[in-house]
Write a sequence for this structure.
């Protein structure tokens, strides 16, 4: 029976752990959040937990980049942009940082569930 006690961070398009289609929907969703070239690696399709690990690292790095950009943009762009444009850049960094943080929490939730599923299969062998 699929687990119906999903966290608020759980992505809507990923079926719950325990559902027959859980791993397939997780793969599709995860591939949508990493560079397209990740699709070239068959190991990531065969082992969803490997893809979730790469996705977690990729999005975590993007979040850190957004945070660093926010911290340094005013100094780095001062004199190159008018004040109103610089404010818009800061707002873009803020919005993207928030969006990426939400995405990372969702990836972490899926990663945890995939790891638990993989561990359960290992216990069966």
């Amino acid at each position: 029976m699929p687990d119906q006690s999903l966290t608020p961070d759980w992505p809507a398009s990923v079926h719950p752990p325990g559902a027959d289609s859980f791993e397939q929907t997780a793969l599709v969703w995860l591939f949508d959040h990493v560079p397209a070239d990740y699709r070239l690696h068959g190991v990531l399709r065969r082992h969803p937990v490997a893809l979730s690990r790469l996705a977690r690292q990729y999005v975590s790095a993007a979040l850190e980049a957004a945070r660093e950009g926010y911290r340094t943009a005013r100094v780095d762009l001062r004199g190159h942009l008018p004040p109103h444009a610089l404010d818009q850049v800061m707002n873009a960094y803020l919005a993207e940082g928030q969006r990426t943080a939400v995405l990372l929490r969702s990836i972490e939730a899926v990663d945890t569930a995939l790891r638990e599923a993989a561990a359960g299969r290992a216990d069966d062998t």
User: Anything to note?
Assistant: Residues 22-117 form one domain.
